[in-house]
Description:
Blueprint: E1 2-5, H1 27-48, H2 52-68, E2 76-79, H3 80-88, E3 96-101, H4 108-119, E4 128-138, E5 150-159, E6 162-172, E7 182-185, E8 200-203, H5 206-218, E9 220-221, E10 227-228, H6 232-244, E11 247-248, H7 249-262, H8 278-286, H9 299-314, E12 322-324, E13 329-330
Parallel strand pairs: 3-6
Antiparallel strand pairs: 1-4, 2-3, 4-5, 5-6, 7-8, 9-10, 11-12, 12-13
Helix pairs in contact: 1-2, 5-6, 5-7, 6-9
Protein name: Nucleotidyl transferase AbiEii/AbiGii toxin family protein
Organism: Kribbella pittospori
Pfam family, one: AbiEii
Amino acid sequence: MQRILTEHEMPQAGRTGKSTMAEPLTQLEANRLRQSLGTKLASEAKSRGVAADPIRKQYIFTIFLSRIFQDSDAPWVLLGGNALLIRTGGGRFTLDVDLARETPWTSTDDALSELRQLSSRPHHGDPFEFELYSMTIQREADPYGYGTETAKVKARALLGGREFESFSIDLTTRRHLDAPVDHVPLKPIIDHETLKDLPSIPTIPIEHHLADKICALYERHGRDGHEASTRYRDLADIVRIVAAIPFDAARLTTVLGREAARRQLTLPNKVHAPSEDWVVGFPRSAAGFAEYPREYWDLNAAVTFCSTCLDEILNAERTTGTWDPARLSWQ
Length: 331
């Protein structure tokens, strides 16, 4: 069941979620900043060979997350593609922000009010205002026991009273962590005064992120449960993790076992493509993934690369040690 709250139905306190600027920009200053930021972000996108829109969004996400996590005791954790992006520093750009509350909220209205308050505090005097103006509530239980209530919030960042960028925020009450969160430093997408002294962001442990991707790769879908996944990004994300991020074998083994049990899933004993359709479908999609290594566009190359690391985990030959992405070996 879904229920959509419009701006007029939102809690009255902090309805627009606007920040209070000590020294607001004049319209001329705002216009000049908008132009200079646009030029810098477009130049960064061109140098990376990606579209400008995800770079603009990543810039605004960094500003937004800097506000939310100014204080180390903020009760939220970053999930999803942005959690992976801030670890790797590139690729896997997303169009929304995924946040989980560490403890259950009393209501979605309270959660939204809390986010409005947190996002209204400029980080080192950044000149933006954030409006969180529409919320869709989902109360259907998911199949994996992670919780029954989620919400999607529509938001926009304003500069000088005009929209600079819009985005959405996915909220959840679920917390399925059996280890402390990781605190990962935010990385500036461009060199700019608004992105100085960025905080570290609490994110789900990388082993949880990797386990979720592995399980998603082998889940079956459709009415009869026989349709293989076509989420090609999951394999690409596994490649990115194996190539760049250390992780613990024991923790990954534990989380994989739990996730597979919750999803009623039997994992393979080695990495392989979910179906024959991937032979054509994966390379075609991989060619369009931002900053994804060309040498792993080929399905067999991507699978072989991941197998070097993960086959030992899947076949239970390895239950201890740390993956070293620099050496591409277990230590």
